[in-house]
Amino acid sequence: MSSDVDTMNASRAGGLRGWARTHWIIAALLVIAIVLLLWLIISAFMKPKKKAGPPPPTPVAAAPVTTGNIDIYLDALGTVTPVYTVTVASRVAGELTQVRYKEGQMVKKNELLAVIDPRPYEAVLVQSQGQLSRDAAALKNARIDLVRYQNSFKEHAIPQQTLATQQALVDQDEGTVKLDQGNLDAAQVNVDYTRIVSPIDGRVGLRTVDPGNIVPANGTTGIATITQLQPITVIFTIAEDSLSDVVEAMATGRTLDVKALDRTKQHELADGTLLTVDNQINTTTGTVRARATFPNTHNELFPNQFVNARLLVKTLTQVNLVPEAAIQRTNDSAFVYVIQGDGTVKQQTIKIQATEGEVSAATGVDPGAQVVTDGFDRLQNGSKVTIRKPNVNGAPAATEGGGAKPSP
């Protein structure tokens, strides 16, 4: 029995030794696996990274710098002002018997507008004519008597005093006749004033007095207002900083063109020329008023209408024209991105001479150079670019390789 126990103990001890051997093998394998994993991780971190390639070219839109002429304008807000505006009033008092015009009618100079009852003034005219005839007859008789007295005085038939008295009577009658003639002329003028005529060519406004009313002489409201429309003028202001350019251009004798535009500056209303500038500067606003004249043949301009006046001061010829979209501005300067032959861009400082519409005259860039007009977000000196091809509708589409020439 003891031998059986010994056998069992021996078997148990052998099992324990086998289990311990298996445990050490597993532990060794785990250590090896951990070491291998650490080696792989360290190798991955220690492995040199691939260098990043250059960034892709930036797609941009481009346009060439051209050579041409550009007009320099001065823009200002103006008011349409008639050359003549007349308030027609009656020169005599009386009943308004006729109104011969229609509201808004175009009238000519000396065209009959209205009639005042002429009968009282015609009666005065007849009286003046009669008075003149009577006194003229008395003057004629006095002159005949003067001739007789002169002959009698030569024969010593009458004293000199009688002759002098008759001469004085003739002089008195001559004065009376002149007075009567003046009264007759005044009466004739009053009769003429009963027919109210237009003093100018123009357009009649709304009627202010109806027939049948008694109108006063030289009334303040008047019977009608007439405004000349052809030609018509526009008064606008010029900044004193620009006044020297305008005066210099006027001194050459050249006619300066002026355009009248609507409020939105989108539609041209009429073409005219600069007439003159005022003789002093407004110290409050630092501007001087100018007047331009327009034929207004089709009544494009209306009195007191607000318009935008554009005065053509001069024209710059054979200058470099840069698209306005290509110009980038800072507080102190302006620049453009010029596309080089290798497809990179170079920042080029320019000096703007004038701007009109979508182009500017500038120095500092050569004619024919391609400048970037769109796609500035990521650009800097040396950036690689590619020029976008416009599609049939003008919108950006596919791109082509870099270079200074735009795609056809």
List keywords for this structure.
conserved putative lor/sdh protein from methanococcus maripaludis s2 fold, single chain, 31% helix, 35% strand, Elongation Factor Tu (Ef-tu), domain 3, rod-shaped, disordered C terminus, 408 residues, alpha+beta, four-stranded mixed beta sheet
Short précis:
This protein has helices at residues 2-46, 119-154, 160-193, 240-251, and strands at 58-64, 66-82, 85-88, 94-99, 106-107, 112-116, 195-197, 202-204, 214-215, 224-227, 232-239, 257-261, 268-277, 287-294, 306-323, 328-329, 334-339, 345-356, 359-363, 370-374, 385-390, 396-399. The chain is 31% helix and 35% strand.
Description:
With 408 residues, the chain is an alpha+beta fold. It has 4 domains: 1-49; 60-65 and 327-399, conserved putative lor/sdh protein from methanococcus maripaludis s2 fold; 73-83 and 228-315, Elongation Factor Tu (Ef-tu), domain 3; 94-219, no CATH class. Helices cover 31% and strands 35% of the residues. It has 4 helices and 22 strands. The chain has helices at residues 2-46, 119-154, 160-193, 240-251; strands at residues 58-64, 66-82, 85-88, 94-99, 106-107, 112-116, 195-197, 202-204, 214-215, 224-227, 232-239, 257-261, 268-277, 287-294, 306-323, 328-329, 334-339, 345-356, 359-363, 370-374, 385-390, 396-399. The strands form 4 sheets. The protein has a 6-stranded antiparallel beta barrel. Strand 16 (328-329) and strand 17 form a beta hairpin. Helix 2 runs antiparallel to helix 3 (160-193). The longest helix is centred in the N-terminal third of the chain and has 45 residues, at 2-46. The chain is rod-shaped, with a radius of gyration of 52 Å. The relative contact order is 0.17. The model is unreliable at 394-408 (pLDDT under 50).
